[in-house]
Fold Regulator of RNase E activity RraA.
Amino acid sequence: MLLPRLSLLSTLLLLFFWQPLAAQVAATKDQLQFFTANWKGERFPDGRPKVSDDLLKRVKNISLEEAWGVLRSEGYHNQYEGDWFVLRDDQVMVGRALTAQYMPRRPDVEDPLKEKGAAEGRIGGTNSWPIDMLTNGDIYVADSYGKIVDGTLIGDNLGNSIYAKSKNGVVFYGSVRDIEGLEKIEGFNAFVKGYDPSYIQEMMLAGINVPIRIGRATVLPGDVILAKKGGVVFIPAHLVEKVVISSEFIALRDQFGHQRLREGKYTPGEIDRQWTDPIKKDFLSWLDQNPDKLPMSRKELDAYMKSRTW
């Protein structure tokens, strides 16, 4: 028999994560707290981690490479996805993930989900239900399994609603329609796998605020998204502060190193290896002389540098 071969933990997790399908459309607060247990800060009423607006602003100024590098150093190797169709590739998008999982339609799963959604007071098509839950600063992130034709999760009507609620945009492992209309929504952005004039067919919503896969990345509700024309990085909420301060420090090091290379004070070999004590001393002096270049407080920077091995 199969069941005895499963570990107790595997069985419990299987039952735990399928509970939303039996009980409700969206994950419960307890479930959200379970799979984002490393986050110790503020949460939304639904249980999603609520990374501060101040940190979101700082995330906007770091590079994909810096964020990716810090995440990998922490053991998170599956947080990036590239190869996107981007509505506005000159516009950086940062926000907190509200996730949705879509699957090919199966009536015996979809019908009770729709009934449950109606009982919960959800109205309209199921692809509008996650939109109704958006708050300011959210990004609607959906796994629609790469479906392009008949897989368009939104058009310009839903796009306007998304922007009105979140002042942000979407990341879809799938497609959209009404590109011209979406482009008219000032401030809205979309990172998707394609677009098509067709409308959504033979797809069903399987869960809201559940763990999802976006290409090569695993995404949890409340992850902070950094989306630029080079791709998208999904930062676990509990690592956002570390990613920000580490990335900001790396950027300061790079500014200092580039300046000194242009001045001819050091060689590339000196800058690209472990810094000597004289270079470190020069860098600290440079920080004192350029306080306007610091994206963080000097107190925060000094605390960070005490734990850094350079």
Residues 240-263 form the longest helix (24 residues). The chain has a mean pLDDT of 92. The chain has twelve helices and 13 strands.
